[in-house]
Amino acid sequence: MDRSTDAQAYGLMRIDATPLALPVASLREVIPCPEVLAPLPVPAAGVCGAVRLRGSIIPVLDLRHVLGLPPAAPDSTGVIVLMRHEGRLLGLRVSAVSGMARVAADRLHALDIAMPAGAGIATHSFETEDGVATLLDAGRIASLPGVPMVVEPRTESRDGVRGRREPVLLFRCGGLPFGIAAMSVDATVPRIALRDNALVGELCRGVIDHHGHEVPVIDTLRLLGMGQAADPAASAVVVLRFAQGLLGLMLDEVRDIAQVAAAEILPLQPLGLRDARLFRGVLGARDGHGNGNEHGEQHLLLDAAALQADEILSALAGLSRPKAAKEAVVAGAAQAGAAIGGRPYLTYQVEVETASPLTQASEILVYPAHAVPLHERRDATLGLFTHRGSAVPLVCLGTLLGRPAVLDMASARVLIVEDAGQRVGLVVQALCSIENARWEQPVADGVEASLDSMRGLQPLVEVGTGEQHRTLPRLDLVQLVRALRREAASVAQAPEARPTEPAALSAV
User: Fold this and answer.
1) 343-394 per-position pLDDT tens digit
2) Which domain holds residue 32?
3) What pLDDT shows up at residue 467?
4) Nearest by Cα to 134 from 26, 255, 239, 17
5) How far apart are CA 448 and CA 482, in angstroms?
6) Residues 363 and 271 both lie in one domain
7) Are 429 and 376 in contact, with CB atoms under 8 Å apart?
8) Residue 480's domain is classified under what CATH number?
9) Rounded to the nearest 10 degrees, what angle do helices 311-318 and 323-339 cross at?
10) Model's pTM, two decimal places?
């Protein structure tokens, strides 16, 4: 994915259905708005009171008034976004925070608004998954006539030394509180239905369209060994950036963008965790020193670097790219897997779960609706379809191997395998997963296998991690397609068995 290097991170918020944004560097934290704000008698338009926070009294500006939006409903509370600018703080009253977005400079559209000097706080707009967001300028907000701000208090970490703070996106998933470094987040996507696609399985639950790319979305709870999503179709998504592309994590809701010091992250013992390496630690609730977060509960912090280094997740992220880049990414993932003793394998169903090297399937497709069936077929060939400028035969892998044929085309998947510039679509019952090999049974190099030999016992491969590992038959798809093409060429050179001509025709 060709993403611009000048992309900046913005925190997203809403006033009712109106999306707004501020640079992440201008956000201190987000706190619940109390039912009644402390009175603050200042003449500035839009100042609606003050909020007490850890010994400080912070003025609050109602952005509805400044932006000319309708007043809030009587029972509306919302949240207060603490904006920082040049060592001073101001609370901004909004309806909710809605996540993060990284936006390249060429996606920002300047707003030329004729307003009095210092009053134009909106500078740009840009498109998000939630609509068109208006970018606000912290400096211009701070310069509004008569708006008071307070000096940002010095925050001490547990050892008494002021630490560098980083933004962390806090969210809930399956009712559980999580967090992840905000700078690893490309965007958050509101609740939209996940679309089915060839990658769907136990871990990958669907895809979303995100700025022109089809992004795989995984079940966060299943990844972490903490259950599974109750309703994948109605989940929100946080999109993470990988070197290979983009990958979405399912979530319930975004809660906050908090500034966190390293000293506030408590170490997490691995007891009871299936994969402790995916966790960075625990962020606790605010204590008497101002450490932690405002939500009154602990948040499990995911380790973005560990997620981005995982071969399986990286391979899935690579599938969000265009085909030309995808093949290079998959090949790179295979080399990375080999360096630690296990290359990625694709597992699928052909009566039994079977594994093949991930690099052997250049693409994975749903069964094409426009395929031309061959009704009087005498072998495993189901039909033909056009794909990327060529006619591709669809071959039932089960029939080819002497196993039950694929009957349910709604759940079937097509593995595109290329050999000598020719493509063949191998139809399997369903996809299972992408996993690293733990062990592979050695095979002789340079031996051309026949179809008959490949219908027999296959070499084995052990895939998976921890207690989830299993031993599966290993099928070389390129060798299979090569043997299939050799057999087809041999049949084509043999004398054709034509139907006997009717006597009336032979007499002509």
Assistant:
1) 888 889 998 899 999 888 888 888 888 888 876 555 788 999 998 788 999 9
2) 8-151
3) 59
4) 17
5) 9
6) no
7) no
8) 2.40.50.180
9) 170
10) 0.56
* Rg of the chain taking only CA atoms, in angstroms: 29
- Residue 227 neighbours by CB distance under 10 Å: 14
The strand pairing partners of 261, in sequence order, are: 165
Query: Mind listing the pLDDT tens digit for each residue in 184-243?
Result: 888 888 777 787 766 677 788 888 887 777 888 999 998 998 888 777 667 889 999 898
Contacts of 256 (CB under 8 A, 6+ apart): 29, 30, 97, 169, 170, 293, 294, 295
* CA 54 – CA 232 distance, rounded (Å): 39
Q: Are residues 398 and 422 in the same domain?
A: yes
* End-to-end CA, the chain: 66
DSSP string, 427-486: EESEEEEEEEEEEE----TTPPPPHHHHTSPPPEEEE-SGGG-EEEEB--HHHHHHHHHH
Average model confidence (pLDDT) across the chain: 80
Q: Which residues pair with 413 in a beta bridge?
A: 366, 428
Same domain, 138 and 178: no
Q: Are residues 184 and 123 in the same domain?
A: no
Domain ends where: 100, 125, 151?
151
For residue 85, which of 134, 144, 126 has the smallest C-alpha distance? 144
Q: Are the C-beta atoms of 71 and 93 separated by less than 8 Å?
A: no
Domain count, the chain: 3
Q: What is the DSSP string of 225-286?
A: TS---S-GGG-EEEEEE-SS-EEEEEESEEEEEEEEEGGGEE----TT-S-GGGEEEEE-B-
Q: Where are the beta strands (DSSP E) in 314-407?
A: 344-350, 352-357, 363-366, 372-373, 381-387, 390-396
Q: Of 151, 173, 194, which one is at a domain's C-terminal end?
A: 151
Contact 90, 147 (CB under 8 A): yes
Q: Do both 67 and 110 map to the same domain?
A: yes
296: left (phi over 0), alpha (psi -120 to 50) or beta: left
Nearest-angstrom CA–CA distance, 314 and 286: 35
- Residues 304 and 182: their CA atoms lie apart, in Å, by 9
